[in-house]
Amino acid sequence: MTKITNNYVLAADIGGTNTRMAVVNENGDIHTLLKKSTYCKEGRDEMISFIVSFAGETIEKSELPIEEICGMGIGFPGPLNAETGTIFNPPNLQGWDSVPLRDILEKELKMPVAIENDANAAALGEWWKGAGSGTGTLFCITLGTGVGGGIILDGKVWHGASSIAGEIGHTTVIRDGIQCTCGNIGCLEAYACSGGILKRVNNALLDEGGNGGLEPLANLKQVDQMIMQGNEIVLNVIRETGVILGIAIANIANLINPEMIVLFGGVTNLGAHLVEPLKEEVKRRAFKKATESLRIELSQLGDNSGTLGAAKNILSKLQN
Amino acid sequence: MTKITNNYVLAADIGGTNTRMAVVNENGDIHTLLKKSTYCKEGRDEMISFIVSFAGETIEKSELPIEEICGMGIGFPGPLNAETGTIFNPPNLQGWDSVPLRDILEKELKMPVAIENDANAAALGEWWKGAGSGTGTLFCITLGTGVGGGIILDGKVWHGASSIAGEIGHTTVIRDGIQCTCGNIGCLEAYACSGGILKRVNNALLDEGGNGGLEPLANLKQVDQMIMQGNEIVLNVIRETGVILGIAIANIANLINPEMIVLFGGVTNLGAHLVEPLKEEVKRRAFKKATESLRIELSQLGDNSGTLGAAKNILSKLQN
Predict the structure, then answer these.
(1) What band does B21 get if pLDDT is binned at 50, 70 and 90?
(2) Inter-chain CB proximity B161 and A293 less than 8 Å
(3) Are the beta carbons of B174 and B191 closer than 8 angstroms?
(4) pLDDT band at residue B308, thresholds of 50, 70 and 90?
(5) pTM for the full predicted model
(6) Which of residues 79-108 of A touch B (CB under 8 A)?
(7) What CATH code is assigned to A134-299?
(8) Concatenated DSSP letters for B88-99?
(9) Any CB–CB contact under 8 A between B178 and chain A?
(10) Which CATH number fits domain B8-124+304-319: 3.30.420.40, 3.30.1330.40, 3.40.50.10490, 3.60.15.10?
(11) Radius of gyration of chain B (CA)
(12) Which of A105, A225, B128, B287 is the most exposed place for a label (fewest CB within 10 A)?
């Protein structure tokens, strides 16, 4: 039975490139959804102004009376303290060290605000209304420009002692592996983020003279096309990426033992070429008892995961 | 202020070799402690009889009236369902598949019984009365005949979806690494359990002709003696073991982000030769924000960790 409700919240999934802003009700139905390029080049204050004015615009577009909007949930790119809503030092944004974004926005918007890291928001969204609906415990892995993760334990985001928990992208999968942007070597992200995959595909093609003197591939769509054309060199790199992801996921299965792994982000468009070797490697490496109860699924909400997770986050806080 | 209490529980740490049985009060004070070789060679029924009669003997020895013993907590070696107290299939014990040990013992002993996996019991003990006292979240790693782990999140054991959580010994640290008894390759346990270390030390000595034609080393005490004598070949294997442990712990730091790692078990007697390279590797690989808030400590309770954890487990259940 769907509960009829008039309680709406604003929900924003703020990315370094695009921002999605929605009005969502208690049931997770999206009433209004807008999308804009994130205005962040001029620095922190302009970006905050952008969020505030985009919020106003979205409320206006929804044609709902402002008093029906009970609060705002935000998924924000980078490390933050979800309890206080303070942003630490996002690698892709300048001037954001120790910014009390929640307090600033609560003052500007005159409503309760809750902020969550974007990977955690996506995990919460998939748990609430996506692939993980009905599970208690899931690990959501974001495979895109970077590799991130969010952990839901018994229905709640697990943040850890210093808000770092879930950083599967920076677990070591190959001890003496390739350099990662974080400074470490052999991190999952270095192999499985979109840039890492492209680099490894282009290197493989170069090594084996397999791209017939063409320009290096510039995006994952081109990688997918090469696979469609039956290019074994490219296919092997993608299979290998699946195996490497499988090692990291097997470690999660044995360490955290979740009910579900949700794979999310642009890299998952590589489909079965990536996911089948991944699943095989998890089965090969993790305990049978951990894999028997583990479902590995693709995101069901796609671009809406973070927005719905941000909505659920503020809804939970309002209900407590 | 220490609360004076008359509420006692029986607490047993049952190992494949030895069993410790204690009477413990609500404050974690050990009133009576006995130790015996575990009688398990004749199979399951005899082992259950052994537990029951050892429990009776311990109560008698305590000279407490039976009505002051409110329940019994057990740390048991191997996989089990802590909620139902059912033992799965312990690798080192025969005939134990799907045995409802809690129900059997409650009937025999006529008191409430709570059973926990031995690694989880050790973690709970260290959290309650040991190195982790005062922390909310810790990961306890047992380094002995095997490598196990127990996770305490916000003061409670995290079991996962199928009671597998914490199995750090069977996370992959070296992708194409050495064979592990679990069937997988490159598991932490294959490198860092006592047998794995011995094998690697003996292989290194053999490869480099460094043991001067002596018999292979038979235990970690001899390894320690070789280090004391300044044997660089042995020392390098121990340092390398520390580095490998450091990789696995860095992964925990980034994934689970606990406040504390507690190292426990006979292998930790190798001391700083093992622990210093371990700490360095964790710092090198994990996020600064995760390591700044992370303490890596040796067990404070030693052989009593599991017994006190078993006591805490039944005490918590009785208090709920």
Answers:
(1) very high
(2) yes
(3) yes
(4) very high
(5) 0.94
(6) 79, 88
(7) 3.30.420.40
(8) ---TTSTT-TTB
(9) no
(10) 3.30.420.40
(11) 20
(12) A225
Give the pLDDT of residue A210.
59
Helix axes B232-255, B220-228, angle to 10 degrees: 120
- A8-125+304-319 and A134-299: identical CATH topology: yes
Asked if B247 is an interface residue toward chain A (Cβ–Cβ < 8 A), one would say yes
**B294: nearest CA in chain A?**
A161
The per-residue pLDDT for A2 is: 41
Fold of A8-125+304-319: Nucleotidyltransferase; domain 5 (3.30.420)
Least confident of A94-98, B151-155, B219-223: A94-98
Tell me the mean pLDDT per 10 residues along chain A, length 320.
Answer: 65 93 97 94 90 97 95 93 90 82 97 96 98 95 94 96 95 96 94 97 86 83 96 97 98 98 96 98 96 96 97 93
Backbone angles phi, psi at B46, to 5 degrees: -65, -35
Cβ-contact B81, B120 below 8 angstroms: no
Q: Is the per-residue pLDDT at B297 higher than 70? A: yes
| Chain B interface test: which of A147, A285, A294 (most B C-beta within 10 Å) | A285
Q: Are A12 and A21 in contact (CB under 8 A)?
A: yes
Separation CA A208–CA A234 (nearest Å)? 11
| CATH code, B135-300 | 3.30.420.40
| Interchain contact A153–B (C-beta under 8 A) | yes
Q: Where are the domains of chain B?
A: 8-124+304-319, 135-300
Given a contact cutoff of 8 angstroms between Cβ atoms, the answer to whether A179 and A190 are in contact is yes
